[in-house]
Each structure stands twice: as C-alpha cells, then as structure tokens.
Amino acid sequence: MRSFRVLFAPEAQDDLDALFAYIADRSGRSPARSFTGSLTDYCLGLGIAPERGTRRDDLAPGLRLLGYRRRATIAFVVTADEVIVLRILYRGRDVKALLAPGDDDSPN
C-alpha cells in the first residue's frame, strides 16, 4: 500500500495551537494534550488513506473536508505524494468563509 507524506501548513499548526489553548483554558492541559494529540494522529493517518472526506472544489481545487469527532473539520489537499493539511477548524467556525479564495485572514 502506498503512503503519502503528511504536512501541516502554518495555518493548520496555528489552529492546533489555538485549539490546545482553548481546551486547556476550559478543561486543563491534560485534556487539551489528549485531544490535540489524537487529532494530530488522525491527520497523520491521512498518509495511509488520503482519499477521504468530502471534495469541495467549489472552495478550492482539490480541497477535501473531513470531520473529526464532530468537533473539528480538517481541510486538506492531496498531491502526487503528499497530503497537505491546510486548516483544522474547531466546531462553529465558518468553513466556507475561512477557506474561500481570497481569504487572507485567519481569525482565532
């Protein structure tokens, strides 16, 4: 079985950091570490089977969205040999507004 290298865009890493801070502030560092660690592992698993999620070419060519535990949405693209995680959006975030072409800000 072919595997793909998984990369996290800087915005996706920022999203993970913000999510960690959000959970840590409300529930403590241990639950934050557990959730973001599991979420990161789930993203890394895309390297084994990247053709998952819903295609959203209307937002960006090749964009796929995949839910995680009904609490986060992973936005990624698959290239010839890589999976690039573009954003990790926590529940309630406006995916379309954050991923639409021409969006230059990344609200926290």
Tags for this entry?
108 residues, 36% helix, alpha+beta, five-stranded mixed sheet, 5 strands, YaeB-like fold
Describe this structure in a few short sentences:
The chain is α+β, with helices and mostly antiparallel strands and 108 residues long. It has helices spanning 10-27, 29-44, 95-99, and strands at 5-8, 54-55, 64-68, 72-78, 82-90. A hairpin with a 3-residue loop joins strand 3 and strand 4.
Describe the structure in your own words.
It is a single chain. The chain is α+β, with helices and mostly antiparallel strands and 108 residues long. It has one domain (5-92): YaeB-like fold, CATH 3.30.2310. 36% of the residues lie in helices and 25% in strands. The protein has 3 helices and 5 strands, in the order E-H-H-E-E-E-E-H. It has helices at 10-27, 29-44, 95-99, and strands at residues 5-8, 54-55, 64-68, 72-78, 82-90. The protein has a 5-stranded mixed sheet. A hairpin with a 3-residue loop joins strand 4 (72-78) and strand 5. Helix 1 (10-27) packs antiparallel against helix 2 (29-44). The longest helix has 18 residues, at 10-27. It is globular and about 40 Å long. The N and C termini lie far apart (37 Å). Residues 103-108 have low confidence and may be disordered.
